[in-house]
Amino acid sequence: MFEENAEIAMRDEELDKIKACIHCGICLSACPTYLTTGNEGNSPRGRLYLIKDLIQGEVSELDATGQEYLDNCLSCMACETVCPSGVEYIRLLDYARHEKQENGYTKGFWGLLRKFSFAFLLDQRYLLNLGRIGLKVLNIFYKLFPFLPKLSKMQPTREISYTKLEVNKLYPSTEKILDEDGENAGIEVCEQSRTVLFNLGCVMDTLYNSVHHDTIKVLNAAGYHVYVPASGCCGALASHSGEFKIGEKQTEKFIQAQCDALNKLYKGPDENAEIEDYEPFQRRAIEDFSNPIVFNSAGCGAYVKDKVYLESLVIKDIAELIDPDNWLAPISLGAFKAKLTSLKGTDENAEIEDCEQSLKAVYHPACHLYHAQGLTTQYQSLLALIPNLELIPFLEAEVCCGSAGFYNLIKPKLAEPIGERKAANIKKAGVDLVITANPGCMSQIEAHLSEGYKVIHPMSLLARCFPEKSNI
Amino acid sequence: MKKLLNSLKKILKPQQVLNKPEDLRLYDTDATALFKNKPRLVLIPYDTEEVSKIILEIISYNKKLKNPQEKLSFVARGAGTGLSGGAIAAENSVLISLAMLSKLIFVDCENRVALVESGYVNATLNKALLGTGLHFAPDPSSQLACTIGGNIAENAGGIHCYKYGVTADHVLGLEIVSPNGEIQYVGSLVPECTENGTAHKHANLNLKFKKTLSDLDVTGLFIGTEGTFGIVTKALLKLTPNQEAFITIQVSFSATLTCAEVVSELIRQGFKPAALEIIDNHAVRAVNAAYNLGFSDEVKAVLLIELDGINEEILKESYRIEALVSDFNPLSYKTTQDVAERLKLWKVRKGSASAFGRIAPFWYLYDAVVPRSKIPAALQGVERIAEKYNLMLANLVHAGDGNLHPNFLYDPEKDITVIERIFEASHEIMRLCVDLGGTLSGEHGIGVEKQEYMDYLFSPNDMQKMLDVRAIFDPEYISNPDKIFPIKVCKECHREVPAHGL
Questions:
Q1: Which tens digits make up the pLDDT trace of A294-318?
Q2: What is the DSSP string of B280-292?
Q3: Among B400, B389, B485, which residue's Cα sits nearest to residue B429?
Q4: What 3-state DSSP class applies to A358?
Q5: Residues of A (5-44) whose Cβ lies below 8 Å from B
Q6: Which residues fall within 8 angstroms of residue B496, CB to CB, at 6 or more apart?
Q7: Chain A interface includes B26 (CB < 8 A)
Q8: Are A85 and B355 within 8 A, CB to CB?
Q9: Residues B399-420: b if buried by 16+ CB within 10 A, e if exposed
């Protein structure tokens, strides 16, 4: 399932890849940690210089300073985007991090705690739910005693609403949906190939559960049936934080869950009665399934795409799946008439007022979309479907916000200036609405913007443009 | 050293003072792979005042020294993208990184000026200027990362400098920290309140643009001195209005020489394009591999011509160029007025230098200048020298101003003697260019790379004059010492300067 311990077994010729770095420095101005510290060691060129010493045997191991520089990397991959020599920086970095099993992320008490959370917390929905309830209790506690210092800047203070999504369930696209004129805009059962697997994941479901509901709504509107497999974390968070073994195990489990789900879809009715209603799904043999596994979190999509090489598994970010130019959906593009003008307030279901003013927003491209998956324009063209929405360009848009998995919890000292820089650039654009498609970015930007700003997932914005569902 | 560290730690935060062995290793070179030297200490000041305080600390440390041989000097560094080793520390040198002096202070569209700190990145300024109809003209190939301070130190040029001029033509005033630690203003940059004299007490005072033309051009004197006159901390830049229209022309040829002849003919006939670039064989191959540009194997050279100005005029001009070029049997001729297409055509040049990494792990970019009319002769000569020393050559030429960039691609692991051969070859190239009536450097500066060639061009008397001027700014000889002038001359000059305060 995995490329034979890809990071560890880098061949000699792959080690030669380090030579592609000619020390030109073009990557410096793209690197968030260099931008905020000005330290060569916190730049891709600097880190590669250290890795080069390691690989070529000039030093047997890095000292604490050098190790810290490697640990400080956000793995945002912005440097790979700008590198004209095509240096495979992340592979080289992972290789160097592997060299020393005990890195800054994994040692000590906090390392153990992280190991525990990666291995158990993220993988068990009931533990995640406990965690969410814990956060709720904590928030009530802080409301009662507002003078108490917060545990971390990242501690979410907003109301976390949660409506459970069932796993092993199909959310079909056949519900009759009315367009603006009250006409029935729904169609009959779509083709079976238009069923997608949509995983709840860990952080997104816990902190931004409503985004999942919105995503399913948009997918349904675009004519896709949505099947939710019983899966846990995909392993991205653990891997990005250097816990490669835990990550690999989780990915294996995750992929198994996808295969189980596809089995259930194609092999026909088992305990799930709802699938029984959709005969066409049973026709295809499992060998040629091509149902996409779709993600609405940048980090998960990038990681799973990179790690899984089962050819028959199609992995797509939601913006890749939905093609705005070729909209085959129960709801026609003409139904996109709802006008968004204001999204102030914390109420997730705030009414959309109808007026002529345009809604101004900035789109922050998550690194795992822009740099890792190369999705540089897809979300923008999806968002262009929304009438009255104007995307304002802002400085350093494609620079990481400092979230980077759990980086902002592990390295708050470095992540905070990066988050503040992002927030300052957003404020300079003069808008109060930020659109971004990754739970990490959402919480990081939320934490660094003051009151009055709103961070929203593109799917939530799109979902608000549809007329309300009606079950006639 | 400990005493200096302790006093510096009082001024700076811990993350601004780097002295671990690996830190020093990281700062031992810039983009010049062939020269290395570790600094004694790396400091990252956050503003002008901190730069000034650092220099004052170094001076007071030097004053307390018993052995003048241990005297510390300092060198400023921007993004470390320089190609002549200008930002590599000399012996006993403290490296001051200006990476965090990266603020855009103001843009004044009416007067077409912008005030930036010297660590501000060249391309970032143009991003910030989007929508104003203005841009900053100097555009060196490293503009995505290189800093304005570095551009000023090296008097950087770039692709469009044939028409728009080099950095010196686009800087109106400077805030500098002199080698004596004092903050000074030169040119059109003046502090708003100048009462009570000393400026360094008001590091946060408002600076403004004042039109000055009548005084001595100290700004012009300062630009291109590679940090030997002091450290630039802020720069008032002239902004250029964007042109109404542009046309980009990309022509490919089966021989580099034909390409050079076209350039000579274009210039002889009086065309003044905004850019005129030659990319030769290996360079085309590297970029083609890196970006899949679809050049056939036949293509041995690509010529890029960019015209800008009023639409009707440049259209007419482009027809004349097309007619002229067709006499030389080009392999392909592409022309565009579309912004996205333009970037694609330019990719062959803008991405070239760094795409060399795909052919060989190291690359030595040489910078030399000949009179424009001598480009064909120079290219032939360079080719001959490369053959003689069995070196892989890739030429990039800013043909408009006769600026040659021969690149030697090499792998010292596979070829042990290659570095020696490169040095010998570059020696010969330098001789060739000077003999053809050219000079040592077009835009990269002299640094440590070419200091030994200075006497090809300048007599001892010439150099002494320059050193005399330098001594006015830096009498203690502590600002980026042992650069530009041949080491022997540097050392002599060093000895002549009386050690003050001892």
A1: 999 988 888 888 876 666 678 889 9
A2: EHHHHHHHHHHH-
A3: B389
A4: coil
A5: 16, 19-30, 34-35, 37-41
A6: none
A7: yes
A8: yes
A9: bbbbbbbbbbbbeeeeeeebbe
Q: By the 8 A CB rule, do B326 and B399 touch?
A: no
B21 inside 8 A of chain A by CB: yes
Q: Do B33 and A23 touch (CB under 8 A)?
A: yes
Q: What is the 3-state secondary structure (H, E, C) of B294-362?
A: CCCCCCCEEEEEEEEECHHHHHHHHHHHHHHHHCCCCCEEEEECCHHHHHHHHHHHHCHHHHHHHCCCE
Q: Which residues contact B114 (CB under 8 A, 6 or more apart)?
A: B104, B106, B107, B108, B125, B129, B136, B236, B237, B239
Instruction: Indicate if the alpha-carbon torsion angle A160, A166, A170, A172 is positive or negative.
Output: negative
* Mutation for B interface: A31, A36, A40, A72, most B CBs within 10 A: A40
Mutate to test the interface with B, among A22, A34, A398 (most CBs of B within 10 A): A22
Contact criterion met (CB < 8 Å) for A38 and B119: yes
Cβ(B158)–Cβ(B396) below 8 Å: no
Could you list the pLDDT tens digit for every one of the 472 residues in chain A? 344 444 444 556 566 777 788 888 999 999 999 999 999 999 999 999 999 888 877 887 888 888 889 989 998 999 999 988 888 898 888 878 776 555 555 666 767 777 777 777 777 777 777 777 877 777 777 777 777 666 666 666 666 778 888 888 888 775 544 444 545 444 334 456 678 889 988 888 888 888 999 899 888 888 788 889 888 888 888 887 777 788 888 888 888 888 778 777 765 444 444 444 433 333 333 445 678 889 999 888 888 888 766 666 788 899 888 887 766 665 655 555 555 555 544 444 444 444 456 788 999 999 999 999 999 889 998 888 887 788 999 999 999 999 887 788 878 889 999 999 999 999 999 888 899 999 889 989 988 987 788 899 999 888 877 665 533 2
The domains located in chain A, with CATH, are 12-99 (1.10.1060.10), 333-463 (3.40.50.1860)
Give the number of other CB atoms < 10 A from CB of residue B470: 20
Chain A residue numbers touching B23 (CB-CB < 8 A): 41, 65
- What's the rounded Cα separation, in Å, for the pair A79 and A284? 43
Distance, in Å, from the CA atom of A437 to the CA atom of A299, rounded to the nearest integer, reads: 9
Give B362-402 pLDDT, tens digit per residue.
888 889 999 988 888 999 999 999 999 999 888 889 888 88
**Is the CB of A87 less than 8 angstroms away from the CB of B357?**
yes
B357 contacts A20? CB cut-off 8 A: yes
Q: Residues near A86 by Cβ (< 8 Å), separated by ≥ 6?
A: A20, B290, B357, B358
Counted across chains A and B, CB pairs separated by less than 8 A come out at 117
Answer yes or no: do B22 and A65 touch at CB < 8 A.
yes
CB atoms closer than 10 angstroms to residue A217: 20
**Residue A357 Cα, gap to closest chain B Cα (Å):** 22
All domains in chain B, ordered by first residue: 2-97 (3.30.43.10), 104-241 (3.30.465.10), 245-451 (3.40.462.10), 457-496 (no CATH)
Could you tell me if A282 and A266 are in contact, meaning their C-beta atoms sit under 8 angstroms apart? yes
Question: The tokens of B314 are what?
Answer: 């440049």
C-beta neighbour count of B342 within 10 angstroms: 16
Residue type at B59?
I
Phi and psi dihedrals of A115, rounded to 5? -55, -45
Q: Give contacts of A 56-75 with B, CB under 8 A.
A: 62-63, 65-66, 69
B366: left (phi over 0), alpha (psi -120 to 50) or beta: beta
Minimal-distance CA residue of chain B relative to A425: B128
B25 touching chain A per CB within 8 A: yes
Joined together, the tokens standing for residue B363 give 């690359």
Beta strands in B69-152 (DSSP E): 73-77, 93-97, 104-108, 113-117, 134-135
